[in-house]
Amino acid sequence: MSFDLLITKIKELRNPTVAGLDPDFDKIPEFLKSEAVAEYGESLEAAAEALYKFNTGLIDALCDIVPAVKIQCAYYEKYGWQGMRTLSRTIKYAKSKGMFVITDGKRNDIGSTMEAYAAAHLGTVNINASETEPFGADALTVNGYLGKDGIAPLIKICRENDKGIFVLVKTSNPSSGELQDKKLESGMTVYEYMGELCEKWGEELPGKFGYNGVGAVVGATYPEQLSELRRKLPHTFFLVPGYGAQGGGAKDVAGAFDKDGLGAVINASRSIMYAYKKQVCAEEDYALAARREAIRMRDDILANI
């Protein structure tokens, strides 16, 4: 099961974190932008190439200390098919460096459409007699609000290709409670019920460490709910956004972990990617700055587990 690979990497590196690769052309170092524009002009090709070089620099600096990367599709779709090519190239490069790759796409649909999403991001497609992997991530974030019809095609692909999914349960954004905190007739909240569904759906994808292949996205910005869900969902692995730039800290995420210090992976994106700005160092040292921040984050979290 795919999350067995992630948990193994976490144990090897003693680091339960994931670095988000959500780069924006306007925010990356100027020297990378200038080099790309000089070669490709002020074009989508230039933006896509600059993002790829930015990403590979980060991956090279992080791959021996951070077990995984989370790649948000929107930051690549923004730059057209050229950006999506960079998404594909980034996934392949990260995997070549031994990193577990989560594609943050929050996909959701039913039937053949969901099957197509699943094949694109986690599976394979046939071109006549040839079978090929379009993107090849290890896991995908999904929205579960269409129920089992939107999850079943993913579970099939995950079983066949040893992949995993993370279902939105209690998200880190301020307005998440407008829907997710609403009470059902049973007295449960919507997010509690969605968590229970993750446990049920995950029974079809058992893992050797006790965590199933259907994980949950639970935000660091809601520490009480995070701890509550850890107690109620013993077989559901958590992807925890909201650490760092969104305001979540090490003490907030401590409740995501089980008694063995497993059960969750904590994401930080901007605070790692753009650490060189906060550290006020040369932009050419952006990757080293990211490494320093990733180490600081790791040590901060481990000290509070």
Automatic annotation (TrEMBL):
One of the protein's GO biological processes: 'de novo' pyrimidine nucleobase biosynthetic process
Pathway field: Pyrimidine metabolism; UMP biosynthesis via de novo pathway; UMP from orotate: step 2/2
InterPro entries (alphabetical): Aldolase_TIM, OMPdecase_AS, OMPdecase_type-2, OMPdeCOase_dom, RibuloseP-bd_barrel
Enzyme type, top EC level: lyase
Gene3D superfamilies: Aldolase class I
GO MF entry, a single one: orotidine-5'-phosphate decarboxylase activity
Catalytic reaction list: orotidine 5'-phosphate + H(+) = UMP + CO2
Record EC number: 4.1.1.23
Positions of the catalytic residues: 106 (proton donor)
Entry keyword set: Decarboxylase, Lyase, Pyrimidine biosynthesis
Orotidine 5'-phosphate decarboxylase domain segment(s): 16-285
Family indicated by similarity: Belongs to the OMP decarboxylase family. Type 2 subfamily.
Protein name: Orotidine 5'-phosphate decarboxylase
Annotated organism of origin: [Clostridium] cellulosi
